[in-house]
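A quick aside before the break. I want you to see a complete sequence-to-structure record at least once, exactly as it would be stored in a machine-readable document. Don't worry about memorizing anything.
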Amino acid sequence: MLLVDLPGYGFSDKPSSFRYGVDAQAAAMCELLDLLNIGHVDLFGHSLGGAIAIAACARRPDLSGRLLLAEPNLDAGGGVFSRAIAARAERDYVSSGHDAEIRDAAASGYCAWAGSMGVALPLAVHRDAVSLVKGADPSWREQLYSLTSLPRTVIFGERSLPDSDHERLPEFGIAVDIVPAAGHSMAIDNPDGLAAALSNACGG
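That is the input. The structure line, written in tokens, reads:
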């Protein structure tokens, strides 16, 4: 199992010269898989990572085994956090907005979000948020639908339901699963439940 910190996040390099955004992150993921030369891999992505995983599979389906997604961004518009970040000018967010985001998250009890943002490059966070809000052409939804050669599973947190995609995606041959007692942050809310859903998606 490989746990990958994307460029700009966690323990990965944080170059200011990198373009960032979903397409750039997907290209970097494909480059990493090529360098590792490990053949087909099952890709898992959550939220922003879901859009990146879809884009990576669409770019290089030859590298992909299964595509496993947890509440991925499928359409333009982003989520609550992404929209708030993208609404600020890049320079403003980098100079002061990122620190304010961390303080506000910590004060609101979103300690995991505050912690992950604390080890992220502000430029990366802003450009990735802008990319989510802008969307892609074709959309990540359309790319996901087109990947018919790959087994595809989308996982939802129980607290995120109802969600129209929970009913809609199976019509396109995409399996769905639910993590009980969890919302969007299912890896925090119920890590064992997420692990069980991923195991089910991989055949038990």
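Two observations worth writing down. The beta strands are 41-46, 64-70, 152-157, 175-179. The chain has two domains: 15-76+135-204, 80-133. We'll return to this after the break.
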